Predict the structure.
Amino acid sequence: MSLSNFQEDTRVLENKNYKGDYFCITFHAPTISPSVTPGQFVHLRLPNSPDLLLRRPFSIYDVDTELSTLSLIYKVIGKGSKALSQVSAGTTVNLLGPLGNGFPPANKEKLIIIVAGGYGCASTFLVAKTAVNPGCCILGARTRDDILVENEFKQTGFEVNITTNDGSYGHKGIVTDVLQQKLNGLPYNQSASIYACGPDAMLKAVGRLALKHHAESYLSFDMPMCCGVGACFTCVIKIKADSRDGWEYVRTCYNGPVFEANDVFFE
Amino acid sequence: MSKPDLSVQLCDRKLRNPVVTASGTFGYGKEYSGLVRFEQLGGITVKGVSPFPSHGNNTPRTSEVDFGMINSIGLQNPGIDKFIAHPDYLPFLRTLDTAVYVNIWGKTMEDYAEVASRLQAEREGIAGLEINISCPNIKEGGMSFGTSLELAGKVVNAVRQATDIPLITKLSPNVNNIADFARCVVDNGSDMVSLINTFPSMAIDIYTRKPKIAANFGGLSGPGIKPISIKMIYEVSQAVDVPIIGMGGIFSAADAIEFLLAGATAVAVGTAIFSDPQTPIKVIQGIADYLNDYDIKDINDIIGGVEIN
Ligand SMILES: Cc1cc2nc3c(=O)[nH]c(=O)nc-3n(C[C@H](O)[C@H](O)[C@H](O)COP(=O)(O)OP(=O)(O)OC[C@H]3O[C@@H](n4cnc5c(N)ncnc54)[C@H](O)[C@@H]3O)c2cc1C
Ligand SMILES: Cc1cc2nc3c(=O)[nH]c(=O)nc-3n(C[C@H](O)[C@H](O)[C@H](O)COP(=O)(O)O)c2cc1C
Ligand code: FES
């Protein structure tokens, strides 16, 4: 749990349509941006939307420490994200952040494999950007239009693999097809560290595969949130525990959103 | 201009101002450290504690709705042993410069008494216990105690036997005559009352036809319930002579002042904290501004000050 949470009135510098339903928004956030680690998120109060009482959580896609900015990539799926897409540059937006425990720093000896489903690329991009030794990433989505930030990942030196369910771009299939190949192809003296964010089913499959290959893997869960800071117990997932049932509900906003696959209680 | 006196008396404890946090919306305090200045708050109320650890309900547990939200957390908590011993809970709360109220619940009468007696032995740093007999989100106990006069009286009595820590009983709005319940719990030894807890409610996703909450139903809180809260507080203030902690939809100082005028001695901010963690602080400042504007020196001069037609 991060002890350096801040609440900051930030200024929107840019909010542009990235492609299709996806947008990229950049804030001037001098208080929050310096302490961001990969995989953390902000909890955002929508301006001019008094009817939207609750904040909305978004992964921090990128930070620029010199300009003190942070950016998010988001998909318009409901009222809140729609309202966000209509916010113009210059607007003040209140953020809580940087929240949560993100991805741990990578071990230099290991091959980093990033697995991102849909907007999961947002929470994993900083892993690539800050990695000492570039590894590979697997970006998966339903269709070509949902593949995001491919070039940005390439610029970090990471090898980029694409999968789409409909085969409209890259490998036709799912991210674990490629992950399986990568893990099978590892030299005997090389181990991998997997960093994943995406839908629950994808995380479960990635976690299972990683455990089978004795690869360490860190999974970032997007659970619906309310407070975003650990106060309300909305955002829980099952984590292994020595309780009667073998698990306990743990707050993803406070103890996560990133958990080691080994700790997650998959049903 | 001299600063108005915002302090209010809740039993043996004087609060620096009348604004506390509502149970279940402020975790165990620690979650907001760094974000909220505890030493500016009148007090905090922590999430409900039971004798046993509790998983709570399945997810999804909350849903935003028009003018509020529905929650069905199901009182997830670490249990009294961990609450007392673990550094994140009571030991942390004891370090705070604010009044700490511990919300308690159980499935049986004995459960309530057990938590109370455990806390009696650890009472240092606890300003009061809030007996939750009004949670709509658990199958046993909870609201069934709060909607039967007989059970409400018994449960409060059992807790009273177990402790001399000041007691607040949290009343359910889901009753015909809330004033009767206030009288009943006070007659059975409750030093104060707090109201209101949430209303049973439901929201349905029209595309999947599934309820938006895993437990199907949850409790409604937020701005939409405020006018109902105010009426109930007014009614209770006419029925009993003990301090009332008023809550239900407070988002601004103006909201809080309405509660004070209706007869609440203190107010609790809940759902609004999710929207803006600074809400309690803003409410305190706004109350001070209001008193200044009307040249009122002491907040107690507006408590119960509604002029009924
Ligand atoms: C840690 C974390 C990181 C996230 N990062 C991103 C990101 O980088 N890009 C992106 O596009 N989206 C991200 N999401 C999902 C994003 O928060 C939701 O898409 C957004 O809240 C939907 O709000 P809405 O009002 O448009 O939709 P609605 O469906 O109208 O929202 C209603 C309620 O449900 C909650 N909700 C609905 N779907 C989700 C969801 N998938 N996750 C969390 N809460 C949800 C909302 O917060 C709100 O309270 C992230 C979620 C979490 C928890
Ligand atoms: C997420 C959530 C959790 C809650 N948990 C508790 C609880 O554990 N015990 C309790 O007595 N009340 C609980 N409540 C009720 C609140 O304390 C309060 O009575 C109610 O929400 C009305 O106030 P509000 O509209 O300001 O939120 C909870 C409310 C919410 C929204
Ligand atoms: S969203 Fe409130 S505890 Fe995580």
Notes: The domain at 8-57+74-203+222-301 of chain B is CATH 3.20.20.70 (TIM Barrel).
